[in-house]
Write a structure and sequence with these properties.
Blueprint (H helix, E strand, L loop, with lengths): L24 H12 L5 E5 L3 H15 L2 E6 L3 E4 L29 H10 L4 E6 L8 H12 L1 H4 L2 E6 L6 H4 L2 E3 L7 H19 L4 E2 L1 H11 L4 H13 L3 E2 L4 H11 L6 E4 L12 H15 L9 E6 L5 H12 L3 E4 L1 H4 L6 H15 L3 E5 L3 H4 L8 H15 L4 E7 L7 H4 L6 E5 L4 H14 L9 H7 L5 H15 L7 H9 L4 H4 L1 H12 L3 E2 L2
Helix pairs in contact: 1-2, 3-4, 7-8, 7-9, 8-10, 9-10, 14-16, 18-19, 18-20, 19-21, 20-21
Length: about 525
């Protein structure tokens, strides 16, 4: 697609500034050709985009002047033609032409490897889903003999599968190649191509809101080419348009495609800053960084905040509000789901969860009660220390727009490596709400339940609930509604009665809260 002028509502206008249809094939192909020219006989490609990997290998074979053959257990060995060099993005999702008929007697892995071993002409052999056969010692030996004979025959065996690990005796003869994920420009090109396909099929242009298209691009980052194409078609299919209403379903579908393992959950229930009483300094801090996080490609992205404070003070609600106001997905990291009794599995789970968060960028990663997951005690064989090291390394090296909102109640177990300056952008202390904030919170919770705050004496409720946390204020409204259910309208007196019966945490645990305030006075910024 060339550069063209079009109305702002047309997706074709997005071709301006997008990469050519030959997009990133150059960098992927160049890297793969280097490996094939490095006399490494065995290559592995872990991917769910099998057609794209096969096409890329065939293109490399054509440029290097080598034959290429494809093997699968259903078709055996068959010749593969070279693809056209003028491919576009959509072509990358299909095999290049029709492969030839399978050679007789090559369906079984052993028979195929013996045929390969006897082949005289230098060839690139693409072996699909071969991982299922690598526990056979005869097969492993045949692969090794082919690899050791590379200087004579120059055969490459390329294993393409969703996941493949070569046995130890083959690993030193091999290299791994990773297909690059599409960039933002490549995704814009793909959107344009899918829009052109829609136009050819339906006879009309795809209508599009430019902000929605940019949001779509942002939320497709981290996906493979084929998955991105599928979600683009999904966004266009229903009404022939790309609108802001298409973005939430795309985000949810993306999270599903990334393969959630349970440690990371997609939180559908976000909030707004209006839902959070008080915390004015934190709100202002977040509003100042909103544009920089969402659109500031030329700025260092904000890393995150650590919220320390009294239980029930609104830290978790603030985390939800960040995602809601910034209009990005909210992911919650559950340390309980990360931990595994097998050595090394917890750290692996942590890396996978953080990898998924990076792929979901831009997003907010909510780490609730972080001290429970990274407490550096000696009762777990050092697992928590290794989890902390993994998290800190990721925080230092991560360049994706993942904004961390970590909350903590027990500062005694916060490791010093986490609270030092530079790990987070800021550490905020969420104290018990003052009288004005308590009145705001009562108004929020009454309004949320369909009640008119003007019908209640909010200043009186605020004065009576001194020392209450936000959660305790909400509970006093909930309990009062239970008390009058079926007997009349809720009034100020009913809520006051519940307040009088409640012993807040500030009374029950006065010493610990005072110690927390003393710790925070010199180390944190007040959130309010």
């Amino acid at each position: 697609m060339g550069r063209c002028k079009a109305r702002a509502s047309d997706t074709s206008a997005l071709a301006v500034g997008a990469e050519s249809p030959q997009y990133r094939a150059m960098s992927d192909r160049g890297d793969l050709e280097l490996l094939l020219q490095s006399h490494i006989p065995l290559l592995t490609i872990d991917t769910h985009e099998e057609p794209r990997a096969v096409r890329l290998l065939a293109a490399c074979a054509g440029r290097l002047g080598k034959r290429v053959q494809l093997w699968s257990i259903t078709d055996g060995l068959r010749a593969l033609p070279y693809p056209s060099p003028s491919a576009n993005l959509s072509d990358e999702l299909r095999l290049a032409g029709d492969a030839g008929a399978g050679a007789a007697g090559t369906h079984e892995p052993q028979a195929a490897l013996r045929r390969i071993k006897a082949e005289l002409s230098a060839t690139i052999f693409i072996l699909l889903d071969f991982h299922a056969h690598l526990d056979d010692p005869v097969i492993v030996r045949l692969i090794k003999e082919i690899a050791l004979n590379f200087s004579v025959r120059e055969h490459h065996l390329v294993f393409v599968s969703h996941h493949i690990e070569l046995p130890a005796e083959l690993s030193r003869l091999s290299a791994r190649f990773d297909l690059k994920l599409p960039s933002a420009d490549e995704l814009r090109t793909l959107i344009n191509e899918e829009a052109e396909l829609w136009k050819l099929k339906n006879g009309e242009r795809v209508r599009a809101e430019k902000p929605a298209v940019q949001q779509l691009v942002n939320n497709l980052l981290g996906l493979t080419l084929s998955d991105a194409a599928m979600l683009i078609r999904k966004a266009i299919r229903d009404d022939g348009a790309i609108l802001s209403s298409d973005i939430p379903p795309v985000v949810k579908a993306k999270y599903t495609l990334l393969g959630n393992d349970g440690a990371l959950s997609f939180e559908h229930d976000t909030a707004t800053l209006v839902d959070v009483g008080g915390l004015e300094r934190l709100k202002q801090w977040l509003q100042t960084r909103h544009k920089a996080f969402v659109n500031g490609a030329d700025l260092d992205a904000p890393k995150g905040v650590l919220l320390v404070g009294v239980q029930g003070g609104g830290k978790s609600l603030a985390a939800k509000a960040v995602a809601g106001v910034w209009g990005v997905p909210l992911l919650r990291l559950d340390f309980g789901a990360l931990y595994n009794t097998f050595f090394g599995e917890t750290e692996k789970n942590t890396r996978e969860a953080l990898k998924t968060a990076s792929a979901m960028a831009p997003c907010v990663l909510w780490v609730d009660e972080i001290e429970k997951g990274v407490a550096t005690g000696d009762n777990d064989g050092g697992t928590s220390r290794r989890v902390l090291a993994t998290l800190l390394t990721w925080m230092a090296e991560n360049r994706s727009r993942v904004f961390i909102v970590a909350t903590a109640n027990d500062i005694q177990h916060l490791p010093p490596e986490l609270v030092r300056k530079g790990r987070m952008d800021e550490i905020f202390f969420v104290d018990l709400p003052d009288a004005d904030t308590r009145a705001q919170i009562y108004g929020i919770h009454l309004r949320k339940r369909g009640l008119d705050p003007a019908a209640f004496d909010l200043p009186t409720l605020a004065q009576a609930s001194e020392g209450f946390s936000g959660a305790e204020i909400e509970q006093s409204v909930v309990a009062a509604r239970y008390a009058v259910y079926g007997e009349g309208e809720l009034s100020t007196a009913h809520v006051l009665a519940e307040i009088a019966q409640t012993k807040p945490l500030s009374v029950v645990m006065a010493d610990r809260i005072q110690a927390l305030r003393a710790w925070a006075a010199e180390r944190t910024v007040p959130a309010d």
